[in-house]
Amino acid sequence: MKQSIFRLLFSCGILTALPMSATMAFASNIDCGRAATPVETEICSNEDLQRLDARLASIYGKLIDIQPQQRHILRRQQTQWLGARDRCQGYSCLANQYHERIAALQAQLQEAVAYVPDEVDRQALEDLRNAVDVMRMTDPEFPLEKVIASLRIEAEGTTFSNDMADDASDDVARFPVKRPEGVSSDEWRALQASRIDGGGEHGYATYTLIDLDGDGLRDLIIDSYVGGTGLFSYISALQRRGGKFEGNYTSLQAYSDFDPQDQDTAVDLADIEPSYLYSINDRGANQSADWIRLRGRIYAAYRTSRYGVDDLYLLRPLTRVGAVPKLTVRYRYQLSVPTLQSNGGAGPEIVLDDALHTALTHALDDIDATAARYEGDSIKPLCPIPESETEKTRSAYFSYGPGHYTYETVGDMSVWIDGKCFIGRLVDWFGRYHPDLGGLTAQLWIRAPDAEDAEEQTYDVGGKRTAIRIDSSIAKVEDDNGM
Predict the structure, then answer these.
(1) CB 275 within 8 Å of CB 337
(2) In this structure, is the dihedral angle defined by the CA atoms of residues 295, 296, 302 and 307, taken in order, positive or negative?
């Protein structure tokens, strides 16, 4: 579901206020009264394909209007795509061609209208980099957290949430019917006039009123929980303009019931125009955000993390996100295996004997202390392969096995215990770090290589980190840890 949602988010329309272009006919926008080729006839006989064709023409026209200097390049690219489309046979091929082309044009359009960081943004980034660099001299474990905490805006906003119905007629929360505490009468009228509804799955949404642009009027931050396999939340910001809150925002309610296998639903959702500042994935990523002030401006300090690195992006909340100021903090870990193990919560804690503790600790020597290095099956077997193994079973000696999106594979290694070789894998949860739980939260899994269904053993691993490098750049935001 996650990939389908993101595909829709970036293939749906982003800009509706731009003028239509006179070049739409070149983009396609078929005149079905003059359909002449088999492909044109196929498109004109299918309502969904007609809608996709019109949408592509609209986006293409907007892009031409915004980037007239790129007209010849865009036309050449579009001519090449039309050639590929006209080689299609059947609905499935045509629909895929349109979705892919719409997504590509939409990405170009998004980049063309995105906010470009100015000199103040660049100075804010350097201020942040210098502050973190100074902090790591005295606190190399938490330099970024300490600096962000000093810049965080905490007491300036009013937050409220969607409410459950008094009669409990359903289990969906909805926008409050009564003015929440801390919301002024003027703000309440603007909220009602804007017809705000940020509910996603079960209507879960929170709203924060805070002055984001310094004009004396509080703007609106909307946090919509969408759910799905990644337990996603989408955060958007609307600007107070006169008697309304305005911005490119659409309720994400439709995504809570989205079925990626339903082609009709996918086409219908292509007409929805969602917009958001950033997203949070609570399963399969390590992300967070804080509202901070630098150089007199408010930013969403959006962080995505993984083993060995924190990437923090400074997002201007009332702009379209493109390439933004980015701070990267890199770490080195001192990995360790606690003698007292939690036993996976399956019973009383266990104490490792000296031989086993030494073997597990030695195995971690093969793990890079600064970055995850897992690249699938290794070139050489991790354990010696007996001659009795078949070609089919030999593969079990080269890797621990397939990974999963809910954790990060740091690396595979051999683990020698009492003269026997085991296949090991170190995993973590994208750099999640808890000082009260040993720092880095990780596990070492081991299994015997000579049995497909061999029982796994799990051991806790911790790691104290030290910040070793801080870089700044202007870069595009990578969602979901770049995956």
Answers:
(1) no
(2) positive
Evaluated on CA atoms 63, 67, 70, 71, the torsion sign reads: positive
Residue among 229, 234, 202 nearest 283 (CA): 229
Residue type at 226 in one-letter notation: V
The burial class, CB within 10 Å (0-12 / 13-18 / 19+), for 376 is exposed
Tokens of 196: 């705000």
Band of pLDDT at residue 239, cut at 50, 70 and 90: very high
Domain ranges across the chain: 2-113, 119-329+473-482, 334-468
Backbone Cα Rg of the chain: 27
Cα 224 to chain centroid, rounded: 14
Measured CA to CA, the distance from residue 383 to residue 394 in angstroms comes to 10
Q: What are phi and psi of 353, to 5 degrees?
A: -75, 165
SS3 298: strand
Read off the tokens for 399: 């890797």
CA distances, 296 to each of 43, 85, 121 (Å): 53, 51, 10
Q: Are 57 and 24 in contact (CB under 8 A)?
A: yes
Q: Which helix H or strand E contains 240, and what residues bound it?
A: strand 232-241
Other residues' Cβ atoms within 10 Å of the Cβ of residue 169? 8
10 Cβ contact partners less than 8 Å away, ≥ 6 residues apart: 103, 106, 107, 110
Q: What are phi and psi of 311, to 5 degrees?
A: -110, 125
> What digits encode the pLDDT tens for the residues 28-68?
567 888 888 889 889 999 999 999 999 899 888 888 888 88
- Label residues 324-362 b or e (16+ Cβ within 10 Å = b): bbbbebbbbbebbbbeebbeeeeeeeeebeeebbebbbe
Q: What is the pTM of this model?
A: 0.80
Dihedral sign, Cα of residue 149, residue 152, residue 157, residue 162: negative
- CB 245 within 8 Å of CB 239: yes
Does residue 186 register a pLDDT over 90? yes
CA distance 380 to 402: 17
Structure tokens that stand for 462 in this block: 């911790």
Inter-residue contact 452 to 427 (CB < 8 Å): no
The tokens describing 217, both together, are 């009027």
Residue 412: strand pairing partners:
425
Give the C-alpha separation, 79 to 74, whole Å. 9
Residues 230-237, mean pLDDT to the nearest whole number: 90
